[in-house]
Amino acid sequence: MQKITCEQLIEKAVALLNDGTVSCVLGWKKGEFDYDITPALFETEEELKNEFVWNDFCRANFSKYLISKTAKCEGKILVFLKPCDTYSFNQLLTEHRFDREKVYAVGIPCEGMADIDKIKAICGDGICKIECGEKIAVSTIYTDEPTLIDAKDVLAERCINCKSKKHVAYDELIGEDGDVIDSGRFDEVAKLEAMTPDERFAFWQNELSRCIRCNACRDVCPACTCEKCVFNNPKSGVENKSPANSFEEQMFHIIRAFHVAGRCTDCGECSRVCPQNIPLHLLNRKFIKDMNEFYGEYQAGAEVGSRAPLVNYTTEDLEPGEVFDRGNKDA
Amino acid sequence: MQRIGVFVCWCGSNIAGTVDVQAVSEALKNEPGVVYSTNYQYMCSQAGQDMIKNAVKEHNLTGIVVCSCSPRMHEATFRKTAAAAGLNPYMVEIANIREQCSWVHKEMPIGTEKAIILGKAAIAKVNLNTPLIPGESPVTKRALVIGGGIAGIQTALDIADAGFPVDIVEKQPTIGGKMAQLDKTFPTLDCAACILTPKMVDVAQNDKIRIFSYSEVAEVGGFVGNFDVKIKRRARYVKEDVCTGCGACVEKCPMKKVPNEFNLGMDNRTAIYIPFAQAVPKVATIDPNHCNMLKNGKCGLCAKVCAAGAIDYKQQDEIIEEKYGAIVVATGFNPISMDKFDEYAYNQSKDVITSLEFERLTNAAGPTAGKLLRPSDHKHPHTIVFVQCVGSRCAACAEKGKEYCSKICCMYTAKHAMLTRDKYPDTEVYVFYIDVRTPGKNFDEFYRRAVEEYGVHYIKGMVGKVVPEGDKLKVQASDLLDNKQLHIDADLVVLAAAIEPDKSARPLATMLTASMDTNDFFTEAHPKLRPVESPTAGVFLSGTCQGPKDIPETVSQAGAAASKVIGLLAKDKLTGNPCVANSDELMCNGCSSCQRVCPYGAISYIDKEFRMPDRTTKIRRVASVNPAVCQGCGACTVACPSGAMDLKGFANEQIMAEVDAICK
To answer: Does the model's ipTM exceed the 0.90 cut?
Structure first.
């Protein structure tokens, strides 16, 4: 369960709204289901008190929303940022995607978010009510008593492998700040690297063949903020392609991984929103792992204005030939 | 649709020898857009060019493909031809079927096939070419010369002579450089000071030239014709415009034990000093590392004796900002450190010296007033061994020395040997060499005089070891021609140390975005045809910063650099290269990736108002390329995540079309 309460956040939001610091609040509200918490813009105290939600299902990363919201909103926007969201926040600032002056960022600690698929695996389908307390109480239409689940048992993959409990950007912090964590997030990548090329191809073929090209991964990605995406641009030659064949569906995700390389903060939103449960974050993590190994540790978004290794030349950079040799060895 | 003419050149037998030019022009006839295709013996000749011009008129051509030599050879030629025929010069593409085809293939069928493919690629590109018009930028009519040695001095004088103002930035307190430290100069043996100091005085008296001595270039921005330079003037604690150079302060200064760098530490100077008698500007400088007043606040003698009141202990470093049209690099050289050459006992014995130290020892203004005396016991040496190529031509020992030949050592060693024998005939002089290299006017005659008239012992072979023993230096060497080992008891050993570019050159190159080779010598734009220009427009090279040189060569290169600068400054406007990056503002999301990778600082960001589909307006931050600064390297087009950046004349679309044409 989360250490800070929903009431604390509402109290903070109302206070900032009423003293005129901010004119609107970017927060979460209930969606169609209890586990389906969606981002929402709140403009009054009443809305906040009635609809604002904070629990184990507030998974959305708000950073990208700031691009469109700051452009529209008069005055400042209050945004609540979990530690992992602050990296995307910084990365977008590095890329000048929104005006920092128009944002009031409140950092909130996060104990990890729940994965609804893991809950469904325990309780089955037909979930009609979820209450988040000490434990997550899940009621379904088939059972009388709610099932009590420990949040620790149903953590999302990206939260199990959480890279940081430390906020790298905020105007104000609620609760205590944590530390950068030495996570095992590259273990899965290492497993892929250990495969033979054929096995690896089969793995990705299996995963990517499920892609329906809904573009959810692209639309949610805080690194995908082009004015016009190449996949929407008739001049690019790859625009509006539905997955006509397996090659194209692979190329979409590989092109996307290349486009965000060095800028991806590994927030994991791509895999979260994928309706087909494709582990897209593994592609990005492979790039991050390679860059760390080739050019030294680099975390996109750790600080504003940092230069990603791929667009920064230093005399210590390794020779392209070494990358090539390693590629040959892996193959 | 374009109307393209294809012109296949035989280049005599250069191309026609391995490429069936008739087959190539026939095959390319059927490519999309091609309306005319022919071949000719020498396309670059007047007749060949007329052929192109006539074809443009006859067939209403809109694009031209010339299958010939490298575009580096004749692209400019054919662009002019196109312009003369009324076409935009950038509607011409060259398919390189000589360097990249006929010269590397031996078999006619293979060469022909490849030539056709290269032609197809060029045609595919021309189909997407658009007329390009170069922009113009104004020229600031002032030059900056970095380094005040003989190279910088000569360049500055020549530029000023043409009427343009010049600033010299010199990091030492005086201009003059290495030449000021030399004694006589080969091959005519006139005294270095006698020929250099008048030039230094000319510089000081020329009202077009400003000298920023004891200063460094701190920052360079801008581009050819419009450089913005920040010059850091280090505090010398003496008001330069007030000091008369009388030297009273130097006499009175109690700190008399500071190693004198002008004499390479072989004697001492005071904490307040004027490097040498003919220094320009003749102004005292306080060495803050040794001045008691600056270190501890005690003393102040110099301020008391200074009649002009020029001493200012509170002086601060000062940054001067100035605009320049052209920059000349003349950063010069230094002998390499002898620390890694233990075999010659340089660090063990005072009597093992470098050639530059030998110059000071024989110079009338040097530590021994020109008498050749051993540094250790001030006795006259009777046996002197000169060792050539110490650290030069050192292919096997790259971590110790340099792979290149330092070029000047053979000649100055011959000079040293000859002068020693001339002044002190009782001295035995040995020179150990790998080769004696004397290409230059009157150089070989000079060397032969040393051997034949002055009886210098030239021995082909290297010195293996020098061991100090008592007051002698035991020299072990091999005589390769006689095939025997030699043991010489020498009184003095002189090492012809390799020369290397000054350490300030590397950071300067970074500031100027001028390229360097692995030895930190500046690279010229073309080793034969553009030897005094750096590949970075507006940056010119003078003297040893570009490669080892003697004085006559340095002076001629300095003059050549000056003439290039004058040519540039004489223009009111500069025509740019139209093949520059441009940003599609509708696609640009203002992320700054391109700005960060641009090595020329050509990209800035502007806030621009856009009309949105819903009739509202929106202000967005978008990239804007300064076409005068952009060199068309294309780094930004690769870095742009949105694909908004593209290179005119080398658009991604055009390159993909070429690749497609090759792969078809």
So the answer is: no
